[in-house]
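Q&A log
Question type: sequence-to-structure
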Amino acid sequence: MIYLTNAFSVHMLPHLKVGTEMNLHIRRISSWEAGDILRSGAFRSFYGHGKTAYHLARYLRIDIPVSRGYVELKDTDVLIIAAITGKRAWESGQKPFPGWIFFEVTTSSDGRDEAA
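Response status: OK
Response body:
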């Protein structure tokens, strides 16, 4: 599954027992690559603010549903983070639209469970 969010949290990882390890891969990507990944298949949006989702949808030229929910990443999942930049300048009217930076997050379990 492909997920689109505005941030990442360790709460998006599956429940880990004490001593269990998980590899986390975070890669900065371009807006073009983010758009290509999101257009490559069905994705779930967890963008909860309509105004921000509207500007991101225009920027990436894709439909971004406004939705809130809980993400739990699995090894086959891809998380695209579209983080807003210049938010205060945009919200105060100093900029006509927000800026964006993009990241791709993937996880993999290495199978090690130190507590076992």
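Response note: The chain has one domain: 2-111.
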